[in-house]
Amino acid sequence: MDATAAPLLTLDWTRFQPRRVQAVRHRLHRHPLLQLDELLALARRLEAAGQLRRIGADAEAGTPFIATAADVGALQRIGAEKGWAVLRYVQIDPTYRGLVDTVLDSIQSHVERVDPGMHYRAGFIFISARHTVTPFHMDVENNFILQMRGHKTLYVWEPDDAVAVSEEARDRFHHHRDLIRWREELRDRAHVFELHAGEGAYMPATSPHMVETGDDLSVTMSFTYLTDATRHDAWLHDLHYLMRRAGLHPSSVGRHPALDALGWRAVAALLGVRRIAQRAAGRPVEPTHPPYAAPGPNEGGRA
Ligand SMILES: [Fe+2]
């Protein structure tokens, strides 16, 4: 796409807050790599890499989020059947890594003015039948979710909405997701986005969300990343999870910045010791800020 033309992603950057949900617009829905024939070709490559997954036709808002391995045949039947498929970690494909970088490069300076340290970039593409539900869940990454085709109703709750997901559930999130529970009355407190091609939303890390598709085949792409702050918050929740297991009652992450800073210094010191021990043992030491997400096992929850 022409870098001198209008921005790929448009939002009011003067209002952008990394921990607040916000509407966005975009012009990626006409991009050749996001048309169905190119996506089927990508799906064949990702199937071989084990990164093509699907969720069943009978999923509802409260269904546990479990995506299972899919094949391109199943993807081609979407439209005739219900359910959806996700092309995960598309940045492992060199062509689509270029697309992920083009989009995230175009917004990086805006994001990093208030949320420095963009890393762990990834892209996920969702191809969904009509009248399909993505169950209530949350993810670890900041997410620009952009509608390319069809219509979706996206329900998003703020990342600090303790009614939607309790602080204890957030502390347990990296270990257990049993306390993340759907209740029908949560709809009333959600941001509701009626997304058509060219529209989207910014969802901060750990914003609970749930999606329902409209009357047509839907294609959506998420551009995701971590920052220094998302990494700190994740470790603080982990620390609080351990404190709860020890019978303590930690305050909410973000409520007391001075306490959070103390907690983070303790975590950083432990991580430093671990890295020194790994080096001393001759074991590989992972970078703290890898530029791209590493595909993992079926962790689910990405939509
Ligand atoms: Fe998600």
Automatic annotation (TrEMBL):
Span of domain JmjC = 93-240
Give the SUPFAM superfamilies listed for this entry.
Answer: Clavaminate synthase-like
Region entry Disordered, spans:
280-303
Q: Which InterPro entries match?
A: Cupin_8 (IPR041667), JmjC_dom (IPR003347)
Cross-referenced PROSITE patterns, in alphabetical order? JMJC
UniProt xrefs under Pfam families: Cupin_8 (PF13621)
Annotated protein name in UniProt = Transcription factor jumonji, jmjC
Protein source organism: Mizugakiibacter sediminis
The organism's taxonomic lineage, starting at the top: Bacteria, Pseudomonadati, Pseudomonadota, Gammaproteobacteria, Lysobacterales
